[in-house]
Amino acid sequence: MHPILRNFLRMNWVLFGLMIALLIYGVYAIHSATWMRDQHFAKSQATWILVCLPMFFIVSLMDYRWVRFGAIPLYVLSIVTLIATMFLGEKRYGARSWLNLGPASFQPSQLAVIAGIMTIALFLSRTRTMPAFLRILCCGAIVGAPWLMILIQPDLGSCIVWVPVILGMMFVGHIPKRWLILMLVIAFALIPLVVHFGLKPYQYSRITTFMNPDADPQGDGWNITQSLIAIGSGGFTGKGYKAPNTQNALGFLPSTIVHNDFIFSVMGEQHGFLGGVILIAALTLLFILMLAIALEAEDDLGRLLAIGITLLLFTHTFMNLGMTVSLTPITGLPLPLVSYGGSFIMITLLSFGLLQSIWIYRRSPR
Questions:
Q1: Cα(101)–Cα(105) distance, rounded to whole angstroms?
Q2: Which residues pair with 104 in a beta bridge?
Q3: pLDDT band at 118, cuts 50/70/90?
Q4: Are 230 and 276 in contact (CB under 8 A)?
Q5: pLDDT at 7
Q6: Average pLDDT over every residue of 242-267
Q7: Is the dihedral of CA 193, 195, 199, 201 positive or negative?
Q8: At 217, is the secondary structure helix, strand, or coil?
Q9: What pLDDT is stored for residue 198 in this prediction?
């Protein structure tokens, strides 16, 4: 049997099936959220998926150890694009975080996170004998440059994502727990300073709105209030597809970001508690399978990559679902595989391709 065909047959087909099902559901959800105003978003999402699926298969069938050669060039590319964004980027929703590339636009912070995961995984897998303090400093140096440039944009959501990803990878990368606990203590101690001195006024208002959305229901608290009304009004089974008398159809949910940040609000209103539970169950199964791949990985590099990707997508999921029900502040993070976003779909499919490669190239289960 040809090696490519053999590797193809060894894919994790449950993970693949869930990925495809959620991608299809995402196109449906985006269409449901925008059909009354602009239907091009669903078509654009479907186009991005079709364009990026070949990349997914190529990465899946390649040995993931190509990261040893590709991580640093990809990391350098991400730094270059972040620098370009600082001077040439397009400003959206208060942040200069997009680069226009002719007919399409790209968000370099998404590339920076996956490139950072690859670089950290490569570094930690090769430096187990290095003193823990030096390993932490080096990880901080790798993360520091892109993190600061993303903070300057400012893209607070993408900055938040780095924290659980890097801490989780350092935990799996044999950094002693006492160092990780110390880092957490320092991070929590710095939160008040960051909140009061490091945030833009609109970012600070998001924090205060999260703490008390009823304080300004007609202003800063409008989006979260309408999201809670939408989800609550869906009841057990929802109002149905294209129901006219909904918060979304009547324009109460923010039309500019409803297909991205508040996609779960639309689905909760249309399909109710039952639809929300099914979606969350599918995502939960997805993360269980991703953790299983990390456990079955052949070496430290594969394990670190799988954990970093899992934490990246889990943080996006937790923050996106959380902000629609007022469990987390509004951060602008998309829901993996479901929310609209071409650059995020590309990075997500690249991540799933790496996971499949780690699964395919495991030689002996643990």
A1: 5
A2: 101
A3: very high
A4: no
A5: 83
A6: 81
A7: negative
A8: coil
A9: 61
Residue with tokens 């008398």: 245
Q: How close are the terminal C-alpha atoms of the chain, in Å?
A: 26
pLDDT in the model for residue 254: 80
What distances in angstroms separate CA 114 from CA 80, 201, 212, 284, 305, one per listed residue?
Answer: 15, 29, 34, 21, 9
Tell whether the model's pLDDT for residue 366 goes beyond 60.
no
What is the three-class DSSP state of 106? Answer: strand
> Two tokens at 166?
């890097």
Long-range contacts of 138-143 (CB under 8 A, 24+ apart): 139/166, 139/170, 142/75, 142/116, 143/116
The CA radius of gyration of the chain, in Å to the nearest whole number, is 21
Q: What angle do CA 128, 134, 138 make, to 5 degrees?
A: 95
* The pLDDT of residue 302: 93
211 CB-contact burial (10 Å; exposed 0-12 / middle 13-18 / buried 19+): exposed
Q: Are 48 and 346 in contact (CB under 8 A)?
A: yes
Instruction: Return the amino acid letter for 331.
Output: T
Largest CA distance in the chain: 66
Q: How far apart are CA 174 and CA 162, in angstroms?
A: 18
- Picking from 124-133, 188-197, 225-234, 318-327, which range would have the lowest pLDDT averaged per residue? 188-197
**What residue type is 287 in one-letter code?**
F
Stretch 72-99: mean pLDDT, rounded? 85
Q: Quick check: helix, strand or coil at residue 98?
A: strand
Q: Are 320 and 341 in contact (CB under 8 A)?
A: no
Residue, of 294 and 366, whose pLDDT is higher: 294
Average pLDDT over residues 16-33: 94
Range list of β-strands (E), the chain: 90-92, 95-101, 104-106
Greater pLDDT, 76 or 218: 76
Handedness of CA 334, 336, 339, 345 (dihedral sign): positive
Query: In a 3-state reduction of DSSP, which class is residue 166?
Result: helix
Average pLDDT over residues 52-61: 94
Cα dihedral 337, 341, 346, 347 sign = negative
Residue 185 pLDDT exceeds 90: no
Q: What number of other Cβ atoms are within 10 A of residue 97's Cβ?
A: 26
List, as one string, the DSSP characters of 287-313. Answer: HHHHHHHHHH-SSHHHHHHHHHHHHHH
